[in-house]
Amino acid sequence: MDTMRDRFAPVVSRLLDEDPRVVVVLAEIGKDGFTEARRRHPDRVINVGIREQLLVGAGAGLALTGLRPVLHTFASFLVERPFEQVKLDLGHQDVGAVLVSAAASFDWPAGGYTHMSPGDVALLDTLDGWTMHVPGHPDEAETLLRHAVAAGDDKVYVRLSVQSNARRRAVDGERFLTVREGRAGVVVAVGPLLDPVLEATEGLDVTVLYATTVRPFDAVALRRATETAGTDVVLVEPYLAGTSTAAANDALHDVPHRVLGLGVGRPELRRYGSVDEHMAAHGLDAGSLRQRIAEFAGAPARA
């Protein structure tokens, strides 16, 4: 199966053909995927070189002219390094763009900490008005990319990862999906962590919600799930642990509840290792998740 990032260039190349407003801005990373598209649209495929602040600034300038810019590089270079430009050139000027990242939290361990970005969603969440998509399958990535580009002039972040669930779900860019129903708690699995969560909760009497759009946070779906499953909520996110606990607390502000945020821990892991080893070290493998979810929710096995 191809990866989410494998889909990025072909999908956006087709969007360049379909929509004259679309323009792609790159910072060297991923340029080879747009060789043919650049021949067809030399004025709408722009490579600024390894200048990530310029990447965002140029995108904002293009948005001011009425174009729909799609900006792409690794998450650490797209969100963290040029954060001031994201805040001011896009946010303060009130113009939109589609930021599409790669490498996620630790997709390329050999690249070291410079190429890891577990705090990207939390950092963007300090700004107003961002929609954030975290697909869990290449087909979902294609759907959400198209959704993002078509979203008028909104500010949208699409977080791509090499990690993937085994099968696609019918995502719509808005709502959480109910994947499993139970009575002893609610587990919200984000993006590519759905499969580990389903394995971890097999036989446990819990409801599992699947989230691929995390901002805006689907408070309605969470409240509805707690009506039958109880108000113990576990969030399992493929980025910084606790990123969405405030959103879950806000959704349940008027009812007694408990929230546990699981995800990437704050301590830096200073060995390269593999993606699976990083997952285990952060307690995101199925065995660790099962223990932590069962202990928190006191979830019995289904009869």
Keywords:
303 residues; alpha/beta; Rossmann fold; 2 domains; 5-stranded mixed beta sheet; 12 helices; 12 strands
pLDDT averaged residue by residue: 96
Query: Nearest-angstrom radius of gyration?
Result: 19 Å
* Overall tally of domains: 2
CATH class of the largest domain: Alpha Beta
Domain Transketolase-like pyrimidine-binding: 2-168
Organism: Streptomyces avermitilis
Protein name: Transketolase
Pfam families: Transket_pyr
Structure in words:
With 303 residues, the chain is α/β, with parallel strands linked by helices. The chain folds into two domains: 4-159, Thiamin diphosphate (ThDP)-binding fold, Pyr/PP domains (Rossmann fold, 3-Layer(aba) Sandwich); 177-297, Rossmann fold (3-Layer(aba) Sandwich). The chain has twelve helices and twelve strands. It has helices spanning 4-18, 35-40, 52-64, 75-80, 83-92, 120-124, 138-149, 194-200, 219-229, 245-251, 275-281, 286-297, and strands at residues 22-26, 45-47, 68-74, 98-102, 130-133, 155-159, 177-180, 186-190, 207-211, 213-215, 232-240, 258-264. The strands form two sheets. Strands 2-1-3-4-6-5-10 form a seven-stranded mixed beta sheet, sandwiched between helices. Strands 7-9-8-11-12 form a five-stranded mixed beta sheet, with helices on both faces. β8 (186-190), α8 (194-200) and β9 (207-211) form a beta-alpha-beta unit. α1 packs parallel to α7 (138-149) and α9 (219-229) crosses α10 (245-251). The longest helix has 15 residues, at 4-18. The mean pLDDT is 96.
